[in-house]
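Page 42, continued from yesterday. The earlier attempt failed because a stray header line got pasted into the input along with the sequence. Redoing it now with the clean sequence only.
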Amino acid sequence: MTRQLLEIASAPASCCSQGLQRGEPKAYAGTPLRPRAAQRPERIVRVRGGRSRVGDDASPLPQDGESPSRLVTIAPFAIDPHAVTNAWFSDFIDTTGYRTDAERFGWSLVFKAFASAVPGAVDSPDAPSWWLRVEGACWRHPNGPNSTIADRGNHPVVHVSWNDAVAFAAWAGGRLPSEAEWECAARGTLTEARFPWGDREPDDTTFQPCNIWQGEFPSHNACADGYASTAPVDSFAPNSAGIFNMTGNTWEWCADAFRVRSLARTARARNDAARAAGERVLKGGSYLCHRSYCYRYRIAARTGVSADSSTGHVGFRLAFDG
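This time it went through. Structure tokens are written below.
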């Protein structure tokens, strides 16, 4: 599949790459994927559903399609309070022999500060300047072929595409949440809050309720929250529903195809490009977000990325029916 970078005129910078040009991947030669005979994780959080708001009428990034907000009806569902970890994803790989898109393409994007000394790392013409194309970067080797996840078993898996997340979900007997379900879970009992913890804005010194950037991006990360990259999935305080890291840490794939709900000509062009590239919705922002340039760690924030894209700051969590 060809991955097409989609540039939006006049849009504020994002920590994400909106898609990559990779050519054709190597064929997958693993065993057929079937849901394993296992119970849901005991830790799952049940969400009552009902009427829930999606989006934000006062969006600071209207070109992302957050506005207008809308009320939707959501059936009861369950969601994992944790993102899928390296340890759990490793179990999936060991059981099925599955190869991720990053492994089949042979490379993925790594934040420049983590990969500038990696032999063979090069700038990518299809990504912002803070990303490097690194041969051998994948979920097992998040910063390049000589890096490991040996001490990151409880960190969220990264360098996983939407395709990879769907394959894992099928094996685990779950699915990806819809965007509406994701927002409902992130708000918990705070139905009008901007963030999972309320409306107080994170800052660079005294209040760091999630794993985002502190300092001047991309040259200096003060790491006031304690992390330069990913944090364990149970880091920071959970929201009112007991769910961890719904914003910051890693972007999370949702089931939905990406589209902007607007009649503006620019929105129509954006939707056409997103449809052509097979974009899916990402929610929650990541450890690279900062209000000064990528104010996308809000609950309503969103972006669209092609389904075979992978980077060092994108992961996912599972939802379950009923």
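Notes: Residues 265-277 form the longest helix (13 residues).
Reminder to self: strip header lines before submitting.
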